[in-house]
C-alpha cells in the first residue's frame, strides 16, 4: 500500500529542495530521519515535518507498521513563481523571481501486509466518546440565590468574591468565561 504526503507552495527554490530529497529517496523511514537530522540546509525542517506527516498517515489511517515503511518515490516540482522588481541603474528595473516548490513523498511497505482496508474511524470514535453531562440552570434562579457565584469563586481558588457582586446576566457570563 502506498501513502502520499504533499507539501505545496513551499517558498524555497526546487533546485535547493532537490538536494535534500535526493538524499532520502529509497531509504527506510528511520534511516531517512537520521540522515536528515545532520543536514545543514534551510529546507530540512520542512522535509522532516512532511516525512513525519506521511508516517503518521500510514500508521493511523492505514494501520501500517512504521518499521516496514520506506520512501518509494520522492520528487520536487516547481510551484508558482512570484515576480518582483528591483530598481537598477539608469532607471531600469531588474526582475527577481521568487520560486516555490511542490514536494511529494510516497511511502510504501517493504513487505506487503494484509491490512489493505482503512480503519473505520466512525466505529472507534463512537466507542471512545464520553458523554459530558451538563446541568441546565435558570437565569432567574441565579439572580435570586446567587449560589452559582459562590461555586465559581471557590473553583477559581479564592474564597472571597472581590468587589461589588452584580447580579445581572452580563456579569454572570463575563465571570464564568462563556461568551
What descriptive keywords fit this protein?
179 residues, alpha+beta, Ribosomal Protein L22, Chain A, 3-stranded antiparallel sheet, two-stranded antiparallel sheet, 40% helix, flat
Topology:
Elements: E1 3-10, H1 14-24, H2 29-37, H3 44-62, E2 69-78, E3 82-87, E4 93-98, E5 101-109, H4 121-128, H5 139-145, H6 147-155, H7 169-176
Antiparallel strand pairs: 1-5, 2-5, 3-4
Written account of the structure:
- With 179 residues, the chain is an alpha+beta fold.
- It has a domain at 3-111: Alpha-Beta Complex (Ribosomal Protein L22, Chain A).
- It is 40% helix and 22% strand.
- It has 7 helices and 5 strands.
- The protein has helices at residues 14-24, 29-37, 44-62, 121-128, 139-145, 147-155, 169-176, and strands at residues 3-10, 69-78, 82-87, 93-98, 101-109.
- The strands form 2 sheets. A 3-stranded antiparallel β-sheet has the order 1-5-2. Strands 3-4 form a two-stranded antiparallel sheet.
- A hairpin with a 5-residue loop joins strand 3 and strand 4 (93-98).
- Mean pLDDT is 81; it is low at 151-155.
**If strands are numbered along the chain, what order do they take across the biggest sheet?**
1-5-2
Note the overall shape. flat
**Integer-rounded radius of gyration:** 28 Å
Q: Work out the helix count.
A: 7
Query: What is the average per-residue confidence, as pLDDT, rounded to a whole number?
Result: 81
Number of strands: 5
Going by CATH, the homologous superfamily of the domain at 3-111 would be Ribosomal protein L22/L17
SSE pattern, N- to C-terminal: EHHHEEEEHHHH
Main sheet, how many strands, which sense, barrel? 3 strands, antiparallel
| CATH C-level name of the domain at 3-111 | Alpha Beta
Question: What would the CATH topology of the domain at 3-111 be?
Answer: Ribosomal Protein L22, Chain A
Distance between the termini: 47 Å
Roughly what fraction of the amino acids lie in strands?
Answer: 15-25%
CATH architecture label of the domain at 3-111: Alpha-Beta Complex
